[in-house]
Write a structure and sequence with these properties.
53 residues, mainly alpha
């Protein structure tokens, strides 16, 4: 048995996830939109904190 490093395992999982997302286009679009919404929320919170200084 070959022992894989955690980094290699993470990379393999990432490739599996990306191939799944590419295979299911509607699903990937949902994830893309959710990711943008989360980033925007975090950015607005960051701006609020900066304005309070």
């Amino acid at each position: 048995m070959l022992k894989r490093t955690a980094n290699e395992n993470a990379h393999i999982k990432f490739e599996n996830v990306t191939s799944l997302i590419v295979a299911n286009d509607g699903f990937s679009r949902k994830i893309f939109i959710i990711t943008i919404i989360v980033i925007l929320k975090q950015y607005t919170q960051y701006l609020r904190i900066m304005n309070n200084w």
